[in-house]
Design goal:
The protein is an alpha/beta fold and 409 residues long. Helix content is 41%, strand content 15%. It is built from 18 helices and 16 strands. The chain has a five-stranded parallel beta sheet with strand order 6-5-7-8-9, with helices on both faces. A five-stranded parallel beta sheet has the order 12-11-10-13-14. The protein has a four-stranded parallel beta sheet with strand order 2-1-3-4, sandwiched between helices. The protein is globular, with a radius of gyration of 22 Å. The C terminus is likely disordered.
C-alpha cells in the first residue's frame, strides 16, 4: 500500500493546476473528461470564480465515446465553442480515461488549429500527478507557443536593476490577488521592473513579450519548466526564490549576481553555499534575539512542509531571524534541483510519516497535525493546494506575515 493515503489528503491534481495557470489569460481550456468532473476544479481548487469568469469547459466524455475513440465529437464541440467565444488560444488537457485509451491530443490540436486559425496546444495532464506538474506544463506550453522573439533587446532602463519575468504565480500557492500585489510591490520598490507576471493580474500581451526580460524569477516550482524553456530559447537566466520577510535582500543580491554572471541559481540554496546565512548564524547566533517559544520547542531544527521554493525561502528567513536550522520536506512533484542536501523529497503518506518521526517543531498546513509526532508543535500555515478552503480564515501572506483570509472565500 505504498503511496496510499489514509490520513492526509492529496495535493491538487495536475488538471486543476493547468486550468489555474491559464485562468486569466483569455484562452479556452478544454478538459476531456466525463460531465461533472469539472466541479472538483470549480468548487475546490479555484477562488477566482467568485469574481470573474474563464473559458474552462468539460467535454462530457461518455463511455461509448471513450471506448470507440469518437474524437469527431470532441473536435466539433471545441470548434463550435471557439466560433462563439473567439479565445486568444485553446489548451487541451487530458484526464485518466482518454489518457489510458491513448487519445491523440497532439493530432486533435493540429486539426483544431488548422480549422480555427487560433493557437492550440496540448497540456499532457492525466489526473495522476499534482498541481505543480500540471501548472508547470501549462506555463511551459504557453511559453513555447506564444512567447515571441523580440529580436534586439532594449537597453535596461536607467536606475533599474533589471527587467524580470515573475514565474509560477497561481492561487494554489499565492491564494489571493492582494498577496500577488504585495509581491509585485516588493520587487518594484527594490528597483526591479516587472516585465511579465505568470499569471495573476496579468495580460496575455505582456506574457507574449516575456523574451524581452533580463531575468526570470521563479517564485514557486510551477514556474520551473517555463524558466528552463525561456533560458534555452532566449538565453534568459533564472533565479529561484520568493521575497518573504527576512529573505528579500538575500534574494535580490542573488538576482543581481545572476544578472551579472548569467548563471542560474536557487537563491536560498546559494545563500547556504556561500555561507552568508548559515555560517553567520553559527558564529553569531548567540547574540540574536530568538523567540523563546520557538527556542523551547525547536531544538536544533524546524521542518517546513510544502512547495520547495516558498518553503525554502521561508526557511532561509527563519534561519536569519531566529538563528535555528531549518529543512524542507517536499511532498510535491518536480522539485529536483530546488531542494538542498538536508531536505527530504517524499512520495506518499508513509514517507511523510517517516520524515517527521523525530521532529519537535513543524511549520505546515493544519492537516499535517494528524501525522506529526505527539510531542511535536505545529505552526499552522494553510495551503490552498493541500487543504482547499477548509482553513480559509487562516490564509496568510508570507511577504507581510499578515492574514489574508476571508469568510467569503
Amino acid at each position: 500500500m505504498r503511496q496510499a493515503y489514509r490520513i492526509l489528503p492529496v495535493y491538487t491534481g495536475d488538471i486543476s493546476g493547468a486550468a489555474s495557470a491559464l485562468f486569466e489569460l483569455g484562452g479556452m481550456t478544454v478538459i476531456h473528461d466525463p460531465s461533472g468532473c469539472n466541479s472538483t476544479y470549480n468548487t475546490h481548487d479555484e477562488l477566482r470564480w467568485y469574481d470573474r469568469d474563464s473559458l474552462i469547459f468539460i467535454t462530457g466524455l461518455r463511455d461509448v465515446d471513450a471506448i470507440m475513440g469518437n474524437d469527431d465529437k470532441l473536435i466539433h464541440d471545441v470548434l463550435q465553442a471557439a466560433e462563439e467565444f473567439r479565445p486568444a488560444f485553446i489548451s487541451l488537457t487530458n484526464s485518466p480515461v482518454p489518457w489510458m485509451n491513448g487519445t491523440d491530443f497532439e493530432g486533435i490540436a493540429s486539426v483544431i488549429e488548422e480549422r480555427t486559425g487560433i493557437p492550440v496546444f496540448y497540456v499532457p495532464s492525466n489526473g495522476m500527478h499534482d498541481y505543480v506538474r500540471g501548472a508547470g506544463l501549462a506555463f511551459e506550453r504557453l511559453a513555447d507557443r506564444l512567447v515571441t522573439d523580440p529580436g534586439v533587446k532594449q537597453e535596461k532602463p536607467v536606475m533599474c536593476r533589471g527587467r524580470v519575468n515573475v514565474l509560477g504565480v497561481t492561487p494554489l500557492d499565492f491564494t489571493l490577488q492582494a498577496y500577488v500585489d504585495d509581491l509585485s510591490a516588493r520587487l518594484t520598490d527594490a528597483g526591479w521592473e516587472i516585465n511579465s507576471l505568470w499569471a495573476m493580474g496579468e495580460s496575455l500581451d505582456r506574457i507574449k513579450n516575456a523574451a524581452g526580460a533580463d531575468l526570470n524569477l521563479i517564485v514557486s516550482s510551477t514556474g520551473m519548466k517555463a524558466a528552463a524553456l525561456l533560458n534555452r530559447r532566449f538565453g534568459i537566466p533564472w533565479t529561484a526564490g520568493c521575497p518573504v520577510d527576512g529573505f528579500e535582500e538575500k534574494l535580490f543580491e542573488a538576482m543581481d549576481r545572476t544578472m551579472a554572471d548569467s548563471v542560474s541559481r536557487v537563491a536560498y540554496l546559494a545563500a547556504d553555499k556561500d555561507g552568508s546565512i548559515r555560517e553567520s548564524l553559527r558564529s553569531a547566533g548567540a547574540g540574536r534575539t530568538v523567540s523563546k517559544d520557538i527556542q523551547k520547542t525547536a531544538g536544533d531544527r524546524m521542518t517546513l512542509i510544502g512547495e520547495p521554493v516558498t518553503m525554502g525561502s521561508l526557511g532561509a528567513a527563519i534561519r536569519e531571524k531566529y538563528g535555528i536550522e531549518t529543512r524542507v520536506v517536499c511532498p510535491t512533484e518536480d522539485c529536483q534541483g530546488l531542494t538542498g542536501p538536508g531536505d527530504v523529497i517524499t512520495r506518499g503518506e508513509e514517507e511523510v510519516l517517516q520524515a517527521l518521526r523525530d521532529d519537535k517543531l513543524v511549520l505546515a498546513d493544519p492537516m499535517y497535525e494528524y501525522v506529526c509526532p505527539a510531542d511535536c508543535r505545529l505552526i499552522r500555515l494553510s495551503h490552498l493546494a493541500f487543504s482547499g478552503r477548509t482553513y480559509r480564515k487562516e490564509f496568510r501572506n508570507l511577504l507581510t506575515a499578515s492574514h489574508i483570509g476571508s469568510a467569503n472565500v
